[in-house]
Amino acid sequence: MASTDKINKGRIGVFALAMLNIVAVVSLRGLPAEAEYGLSSIFYYIFAAIVFLIPVSLVAAELATGWSEKGGIFRWVGEAFGPKLALVAIFMLWIEVTVWFPTALTFGSVSLAFMGPNHTFDQALSENKFFVLAIVLAIYWIATFIALRGTEAFSKVAKWGGLIGTVIPGIVLIVLGFSYFFAGNTPQIQLGWDKLIPDFSNFNNVVLAASIFLFYAGMEMNAIHVKEVDDAPRNYPIAIGIAALGTVCVFVLGTLAIAFVIPQKDISLTQSLLVTYDDMFAWAGISWAAPVMAGCLALGVLAGVVGWVAGPSSALLVVAKGGYLPRFWQYTNKHGMASHIMLMQGLLVTALSVVFVVLPSVQAAYQILSQLTVILYLVMYLLMFAAAIHLRYSQPNRPRAFKIPGGNGGMWFVGGVGFVGSLTAFIFSFIPPGQISVGSPQEYVGILVVLTIIFVSVPLFIYKARKPHWKDPAVTDFAPFTWEIENVHPGVINPSDKVTHTLNQ
Questions:
Q1: Please, which residues have CB within 8 angstroms of residue 176's CB and are 6 or more apart in sequence?
Q2: Diameter of the chain by CA atoms?
Q3: Phi, psi of 229 (to 5 degrees)
Q4: Helix/strand/coil for 122
Q5: Cα dihedral 337/343/344/350 (nearest 10)
């Protein structure tokens, strides 16, 4: 009886899993970018959920339950295509987070700027590139030092910071935004059923909308929990459906709340969320709450950064200890954290943040780094979708607690939709959006192309330069790939695969 109770306590319900996924994905900082579309933003959110969010969730669940050994995306891609592309995949996860930090922290710096009593001064301060740079670096290094203190330290900050800095502000934004609308105030967007469909004749609309894919990134992080769900083949898709619906609702309602208050021509990617709170609090007669909310949002940014500093760096550490990075990068401090990897990440974040001083405006730098983040993350997702399809053929008998229904055709449909959607967004991400001033279009595209080539080339050079002594013989918990055990090449169907694999049981 006692053992049964322990098992039940260790299970995750449908609603709990749905909430885990919603919290992992939802962020408020990107809403102003989509508020420019007004009602048509609803179309983009739903479209991206169908062609990206749901495929990512289902494919990641199958991969996580079929190959649950250490390594995550490195393990999945490596089983299909070998360690070279696997190293590219895990490096893309780590480097895209590195590029993402300046954009997320720009939002945090703007939040801090709006904590002052003078709105005009606050807005001018938030546009000062040197103020933004100083705050970006200060918050990032504080977050890094917290993460270096170990799991207990950063998990507390992530937990309470997420509640105070994301959940509560999100509820306030939606409630006040729609209260403003239903109180009879004139919305700053055009309403009508015809406004739900985007103007596809304007190519720039599609370009900026490609960034919405990043809104849904991260759902794969909780895929491993599918093994703890009762009747996973039935309940996991239900949980994903609830999570997708909940996430879309939060994004749609939050975006419309901003669009109701801020005229389209005045929307700023970095300031509009804070200006919306200022205007709504003034309308409600509680202007004193605006600086408090700005502080909450800044805390939310810190919490998010702490979690993302620790997570991908820890994942890269696992791969490093498997012999794929030099011993220097395998070093951990007394708390077991990947200190050398985190410090290198800090130097890269510092260098990228200087871009804010070079480009013509904070908003231009924000857009370029946001698009670069999308591009790098999509490289990882393209490899993940391709690996999932390939593994249906190279390891067909591998036990999977959750398997996308419909046989190989079902996987081709779900994985294919995700792959094509990701590839389309990847291509569009290189095209400058017409709605935002980014300086010279040629420089914009050039920066994105050059940085993408550099970041994708780095893991390829590292793999080519790897040495046998990088592998620490004391590390015994990094399992070999299945194809290594069966003495075949990655992705090749072994005749012995007629017998079910037992490695993961």
A1: 257, 280, 281, 283, 284
A2: 73
A3: -100, 130
A4: helix
A5: 140
Residue 224's domain spans which residues? Answer: 10-481
**Packing angle between helix 272-284 and helix 232-261, nearest 10 degrees?**
70
- Do residues 178 and 257 touch, judged by C-beta distance below 8 A? yes
φ, ψ (nearest 5 deg) of residue 192: 150, 150
In a domain, 488, yes or no: no
What CATH number should be reported for the domain holding residue 409? 1.20.1740.10
The tokens describing 74, both together, are 């490195």
pTM equals 0.82
* Total domains, the chain: 1
Per-residue pLDDT of the chain (505 residues), as tens digits, is 333 333 344 566 777 777 767 766 777 777 877 777 778 888 888 888 888 888 988 898 888 888 877 778 899 999 999 999 999 999 999 998 888 888 777 777 777 777 766 767 777 787 777 888 888 888 889 888 888 887 777 667 766 777 787 778 888 889 988 898 888 887 777 777 767 777 767 666 666 566 777 788 877 766 656 666 777 677 777 877 788 888 888 888 888 888 888 777 766 666 677 778 888 888 888 888 888 888 888 787 777 777 778 778 888 888 888 889 988 888 888 888 888 999 999 999 998 887 766 666 666 677 777 888 889 999 999 999 999 999 999 888 888 878 898 999 999 999 999 999 999 889 888 887 665 555 677 888 888 899 899 999 999 999 999 888 888 777 776 777 787 777 666 766 655 554 444 444 3
Does residue 502 form part of some domain? no
57 CB-near residues (< 8 Å, 6+ apart): 21, 219, 220, 223, 240, 243, 244
> Which residues are registered as beta bridge partners of 229?
12
Question: How far apart are the C-alpha atoms of 390 and 367, rounded to whole Å?
Answer: 35
Q: Looking at the domain assignment, is residue 472 inside a domain? A: yes
Please report whether residue 361 resides in a domain.
yes
